Structures are given as C-alpha cells and as structure tokens.
Amino acid sequence: MIKKYEELMRICLDEALKYRFEVAPNPMVCAIVYDEANDKIISKGTHEKFGENHAERNAILNAGDIDFSDKTLIVNLEPCSHQGKTPPCVDLIIEKGFKKVVIGTYDPNPLVCSQGTMKLKNSGIEVVVGILENECIELNKVFIKNVTKKMPYVTVKIATTFDSKIVTAGGESKWVTGEASRDYVQKLRSQYFGILSGSGTILADNPALTCRIKGERTPERIIIDRHGKISFDYEVFKDDGTRVFLATNNLERDFPTNVVPIEFANFRDLFAKLYNNGIYSILVETGKTILTALIKQEMADEIYKFVSPKIFGNGMDFVGNLNVFKINECYKLEFRKMEKVEDDILIKAKFLYDE
Ligand code: AOF
Ligand code: ZN
C-alpha cells in the first residue's frame, strides 16, 4: 500500500504546487479522497488562495454527499487543528468519519504541530505519517521558514569554476557556467517572491534580473545600495509593474514610483522588513561581498552552486574572509542534491546553523 500512497502523494505535490504564490505565506496543500477497496480516487481538493478553504475541506466538498467511513484521506501536510481564517480541518475529517488519514509531513505551525495528528488518532482514525516526507518538506520549505521564523526563505545562487572562482585574474566574469545553467537560473527566478542583488552587480553588468521565460512570473527585485549612489537609469529600475525595493540608508533623494526605499541595519532587519512587504522567499544573485556578509550573518538557508568544468587558478573566490581559523569554526552545510546540468554540475546544499 505504501507504493500506492506514494503515487497519490505525488499527485498531491504536483497539484499543490500550482498555487505557490496565491496561498503564501500559507503552505501548498492538496488532499485526495481515496477509496482503497476499489483503488479509486473519489475527489481532489487544493488550498487555492490565502484565507480561503483548506485542501481537505475542498476535497471533501468535491466528493459530494457520500459515505466516508471506508475512505482514506491523503494529504501532504498534517491537517490543522486550530481555528485560523478557516475552521479546523481535523474536526471536519472526524465529523465525516474517515477510516484512515495518510499524511506527508507534520505542520510546524506552533498552533498545529502534531496536535492535528493526535486529535485524529484519539478519535479512532488510523493515521499514517511520513509518506514522501522529504519531498513534502521540500515543497513547503518556504512556509516552514515563514511560519516558524516570520522571515523569508533565502536561497543563494552562485556560479563558479571547478576551483570556486567567479572572475579570472584579468577581470572577466562572463560566462563562468554554460547556457543550460543560465536557463536553469531563469526558471529558478520565477519560483521566488524576490530576487536580491547588489549595486556592484548592477554597475558592472546592468542586468534586468527578470525572468525571461514566456508566461512565467518575474520576481520583485531587491537592490542593496547602502550609500544610495546608483542612478535609476539602469535596466533593473525600468517600471514593468513589479516593485523594486532599494535597500539603502540614503533617503535624501527622489525615488521613481516603482522604487520602494527600505532603510536597514543588517540583513536580519532588511529581511524582516521585506517579509512584511510580502517577500516570502528570496533568490540571492550577488557578488562576493554580499554573499560573505550573508553567510557571516547566518541569513542564508540554502545554496545552489553551479560548478563549471573550468579552472581559472588565480582570480576571485566566490566567498571572502569568514574569520575561520580553526576547522571547528567553519560554516557547515548539508548536501541535499546534485545534478548534471549539461556540462556543469549543480550542488544544492542547506546551511546548518547552531540554534
Ligand atoms: C491544512 N490544510 O490546506 C492548509 C493548512 O488561517 P488559516 O485557517 O488558513 O490557517 C492557516 C494555517 O493552517 C497555516 O499556517 C498552516 O499551519 C495550516 N495550513 N492546513 O490542514 C491546508 N493550507
Ligand atoms: Zn486546515
């Protein structure tokens, strides 16, 4: 049966993902009402919009007026047990008399946090937890950070040579990695609420920092320009309907209407302010200085490192001095995934910080 649950959970994951931006900062959730005896999907339901019906409620509504007492509910996140903008899902599941509930992963929301599961079990419903758990956590990694820390989820993207260089000794930085990696980054951009870069990158490359894939969403841009030196003629400030947040401590100038200035003390302060502006996840595409500061301030959650099969020798490293003198002072990562992207390799790793 586990194989079957995994197959159904995959459907939930694919469906839930369709509403990434609509449900935030809520999780992406999809539920399936399943008739185990006849191996039949009765209905599906998805959480489609922040503040509206949860997935379980929609799946149950879509099933219509049927007998649920021999049915299984499959759902990628633990059903909620609290009264939020909507009533608790577990109460509805218990009221309908489900036989079994199959869950992907626990809800880290302190208001739910295994209490939903406990309530289901206490009412006599059979509960299975942990089907495709890693995938379910991965799907909702942004929500997990949002609900536990009230901060955006931060992914750093970096493209280096095999010897971790980003610029040659002669100052060239275009292109370190291949075209397929750059296409991958375009796709990545469409998955984040915000994309962050520094004034150095803007001055050097004048990038638009948009997602150029047709039909895909362009994230809002965040530019760090502490001293407020950059002119608004650069590509990134072109008004295309999305906001550009300018992280700066110089507010003594006129800003175009699409530019939102934010004063900040450090990354924690900046990210908290961005979170309050609806930036629930950030893709960082910067140079060495900002990346080094981000790592030092322990504000990055994950790193995507594209590595090209090239060696520059002398040149610029992707990260600078972190004051690590002893091995046990190092910053730690956990490797998560590795994939070949044409001639390059993409390594995905999570930052591990002491709590
Ligand atoms: C579920 N199914 O589809 C979702 C859940 O304010 P509310 O009522 O929308 O509650 C939001 C919280 O409920 C959210 O932080 C998360 O803990 C949980 N989301 N739970 O059982 C769903 N979206
Ligand atoms: Zn719920």
Structural class: alpha/beta
Radius of gyration: 23 Å
Main sheet overview: 9 strands, mixed
Following the backbone from N to C, one meets helices and strands in this order, namely HHEEHEHEHEHHEEHEHEEEHEHEEEE
Assigned CATH architecture of the largest domain: 3-Layer(aba) Sandwich
**How many separate helices?**
11
Low-confidence spans: pLDDT under 50, at least 5 residues?
none
Indicate the multimeric state: single chain
Count of spatially separate domains: 2
Bound molecules: ligand AOF, zinc ion
Q: Report the average pLDDT across residues.
A: 95
Please report which band the strand proportion falls in: under 5%, 5-15%, 15-25%, 25-35%, 35-45% or over 45%.
25-35%
Please identify which CATH superfamily of the largest domain we are dealing with: Dihydrofolate Reductase, subunit A
- Shape summary: elongated
User: How are the strands ordered across the major sheet?
Assistant: 11-10-9-8-12-6-13-16-15
| Helical proportion, percent range | 25-40%
Compute the separation of the termini in Å: 38 Å
User: What's the total count of β strands?
Assistant: 16
CATH C-level label of the largest domain: Alpha Beta
Q: Could you characterize what this model shows?
A:
The mean pLDDT is 95. It is built from eleven helices and 16 strands. Helix content is 28%, strand content 26%. It has two domains: 2-140, Cytidine Deaminase, domain 2 (3-Layer(aba) Sandwich), CATH 3.40.140.10; 150-352, Dihydrofolate Reductase, subunit A (3-Layer(aba) Sandwich), CATH 3.40.430. The strands form three sheets. It has a nine-stranded mixed β-sheet, with helices on both faces. It has a five-stranded mixed β-sheet with strand order 2-1-3-4-5, with helices on both faces. The chain has helices at 2-17, 20-23, 55-63, 89-96, 115-122, 133-139, 141-149, 179-189, 199-205, 267-276, 288-296, and strands at 30-35, 40-46, 72-77, 100-105, 126-129, 153-161, 165-168, 194-198, 220-224, 244-247, 259-262, 281-284, 302-308, 315-317, 332-341, 344-352. With 355 residues, the protein is an alpha/beta fold. Bound molecules: ligand AOF and zinc ion. Residues 54, 56, 79-80, 89 line the site of zinc ion. Zinc ion binds at residues 54, 56, 79-80, 89.
